[in-house]
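I hope you will forgive my troubling you with a question about protein structure. Could you please explain, in whatever detail you think fit, how the structure tokens follow from the sequence? Thank you for your consideration; the sequence and its tokens are set out here.
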Amino acid sequence: MRRVHVVVQGEVQGVGYRYTMRLVARRAGVVGWVRNRRDGSVEAEIEGDSDRVDEVLAWMAEGPPGSRVDTATVEDATPAGGSGFEVLPTA
């Protein structure tokens, strides 16, 4: 089990990034959350089998059509368990 904390910067707000990511994450079978940050970036935590987490990370590096990802900073986090993948309010 692997959990990561990710911050994505670029043109990632107002382009459907969070809601598309929720679909991608649910299809991959990972749990966690995603939210916008006030600085214009998107932040997420993803947990699941390592290959499934890598699948979502690969999508995050590209984003949905209309987005532009400049950087994606990934840090390991302590697995927390849980169920589902949610879009949280802006932090």
About this structure: The mean pLDDT is 97. DSSP finds two helices and five strands in the chain.
